Amino acid sequence: NAGVTQTPKFQVLKTGQSMTLQCAQDMNHNSMYWYRQDPGMGLRLIYYSASEGTTDKGEVPNGYNVSRLNKREFSLRLESAAPSQTSVYFCASSSRTGLATNEKLFFGSGTQLSVL
Amino acid sequence: RKEVEQDPGPFNVPEGATVAFNCTYSNSASQSFFWYRQDCRKEPKLLMSVYSSGNEDGRFTAQLNRASQYISLLIRDSKLSDSATYLCVVRKAQGGSEKLVFGKGTKLTVNP
User: Fold this and answer.
1) I need a surface site. Which of A100, B50, B68, B79 has the fewest CB within 10 A?
2) pLDDT digits (tens, 9 = 90+) for A4-53
3) Inter-chain contact A42–B87, Cβ cutoff 8 Å?
4) Can you tell me whether residue B21 is helix, strand or coil?
């Protein structure tokens, strides 16, 4: 059971380059999320998708776009990478769509992105 | 005041010790609370949810104090394998949607 799969695991970009981080889950979850984690900052939400066909901004959406291609896949795109986007990126999913308690987030293994 | 605050540590304890982490949150409308564990260079994984009445899972005990707006995690009989960063997570409703807020984490090292 793969769970949440993210690709690539590592990426180095030059300033101004673009790239797409891919995420797929095989748990039939409705909600999917993209977070970034920086030293001393904790996890911060970039974008999320509560269900197929919907996306919403999180805490730090600037410089990113997302696509919820279908129920399984949620991609994150950097159109013009900047050094400030150097970070570890995590995709996550959960089964909940509305208010509920004790819902578990399943995370992918992360993408280490460096922008030079 | 930050939404979720944790003591960053690091906590260095010997095997077998009891260690406690606290986490405070600023928004009284917060609804659900969790502890996640993150190993070095790995993804976070749910350790346990935190219920109002307090809950226990083996050597781990979580407590919630809504009046004082803090959550705690107690680890008894620490094992080397408990070495990790522990993330406090708070869920709250906000303007028709809701939000998960992560603390920065508390690093624990259990020494032989």
Assistant:
1) B68
2) 999 999 999 999 999 999 999 999 998 899 999 998 788 999 999 988 88
3) yes
4) strand
